[in-house]
Amino acid sequence: MTNSMLKIVFLVVILALILAWYLSFSATRLDRLHHRVETSWEHLDALLQRRAAIAIEIAHQPDLDPATYVLLASAAFQAREASIVERSEAESSLSQSLSLIQSEADDLGDAITPSLLSELTTISAKIKVAVNIHLEAVNAVKHLRSKLVFRIFRLAGHAPLPLRYSFEDDIA
To answer: Residue 37, exposed/middle/buried by CB under 10 A (0-12, 13-18, 19+)?
Structure first.
């Protein structure tokens, strides 16, 4: 082989190594983003479950009127027991019920323990932050997966595209 052929072979090998490194780096980055979506969803789910538990505690307050009890308890139980398909509607319903309770907190007077209302306010604020973090992670994955190199080389593998739920727009 001539000297110029060796240079071309060497250049092709270097370019192939750079491409392999770039694809490996990109796939690792996408994998970390998918992991971030999963962990942010787990954290959000834990907060939503805690919110439903607080709603059930509020519903079981002894001085609460029966209509409020039924409204709040049914929304909380639906949110806790909803399948992934029904989750969005159930969480939206619970959000509406809780916002009604919070807006009428003064009218309800001593029917609800102030510490429960305080805990509800705190958990609601945490949920807003968790929803924003989760939506940011979902958008980052969707943006990265929309790039041509990720589609051509199938760097996402068989990982499903992350979902956005409509209740996240209600809470955020």
So the answer is: buried
Token digits of residue 152: 């051509």
pLDDT tens readout for residues 58-96: 999 888 888 889 999 999 999 999 988 888 899 999 999
Helix (H) or strand (E) holding 121: helix 114-145
Which pTM does this prediction carry? 0.88
Q: Give the rounded distance of the alpha carbon of 70 from its chain centre.
A: 28
Query: Measured between alpha carbons, how far is residue 169 from residues 80, 92, 158, 162 in Å?
Result: 19, 9, 27, 15
Supply the Cα-derived Rg of the chain in whole angstroms: 25
Q: Cβ(114)–Cβ(103) under 8 Å?
A: no
Highest CATH level, class, for 36-171:
mainly alpha
- Where along the chain do its domains lie? 36-171
C-beta of residue 117 within 8 angstroms of C-beta of residue 133? no
